[in-house]
Specification:
By secondary structure, the protein is α+β, with helices and mostly antiparallel strands. The protein contains nine helices and seven strands, in the order αααααβαααβαβββββ. A seven-stranded mixed beta sheet has the order 2-1-7-6-5-4-3.
């Protein structure tokens, strides 16, 4: 009888110890798991933070530069009043007069008595034909336009848009100072205007040039106002 009771007590004790050990083991495992999860979580957080910083850095680098762009920019003087830096301090007609790339345009603006108008009008965008743009027009036709102040004024003011347009605002149809419209197509650093004096679409060869009161886009053709 005593033997039977002793065996029962031993079995009960063994069973209790087994349950206790099992529970302790489970607690230890959970603690270990929690401990190992903590560094992993910290690492994940650091990685996520690093990724966000990387994304911010990339986003910043992808922003369009404020510098002038285009193959034609290489013809602009590297220093002096006619350089990009020098032009920023002067109003647009004065700035253009210091840039040899725009000497024919300046002659036309002077002929039309538009120097003061361009210099004193705040915040404008000027589509500025470079010298080769005028050279592409037959000389007899060019001289006839230069001699007709009304026609010359209409053509030149067709190249001026109220407001300073950044490159990402340039594409679209805009009302000009002449009261008509000009449509510019493209994106990024590639822009064209279909309506020109010669019939050959104009391309922006040097864009986002800053002056004291204007943003200038130099083109390789003279634009033509719409007929009518």
């Amino acid at each position: 009888m005593k033997s039977t009771l002793t065996r029962g007590v031993l079995l009960a004790t063994a069973s209790t110890l087994a349950v206790t050990l099992s529970a302790c083991g489970s607690d230890d495992s959970g603690t270990a798991s929690e401990g190992s999860a903590s560094p992993s979580s910290d690492s994940s957080s650091e990685t996520s933070s690093g990724s966000e910083e990387g994304m911010e850095s990339t986003s910043g680098s992808d922003m369009m530069s404020d510098e002038p762009f285009g193959a034609g920019c290489s013809a602009v003087p590297a220093d002096g009043e006619g350089s990009f830096t020098g032009m920023t301090d002067d109003p647009v007609a004065t700035a253009a007069s210091n840039n040899p790339v725009l000497s024919t345009l300046v002659q036309a603006v002077t002929q039309a008595n538009l120097v003061d108008t361009l210099n004193t009008t705040p915040d404008i965008t000027v589509i500025a034909p470079a010298n080769p743009a005028f050279e592409a027009i037959p000389q007899d036709q060019l001289q006839a336009v230069l001699a007709d102040n009304a026609v010359l004024t209409q053509i030149l003011t067709h190249h001026v848009i109220p407001g300073r347009l950044s490159p990402d605002q340039l594409a679209g149809t805009h009302t000009t100072v002449a009261g008509d419209e000009v449509t510019i197509e493209g994106s990024g650093e590639n822009f064209t205007v279909a309506q020109t004096v010669t019939g050959t679409p104009a391309s922006v060869i040097c864009g986002n040039v800053q002056t004291a009161n204007a943003t200038v886009y130099i083109v390789d053709q003279v634009l033509a106002p719409a007929a009518g």
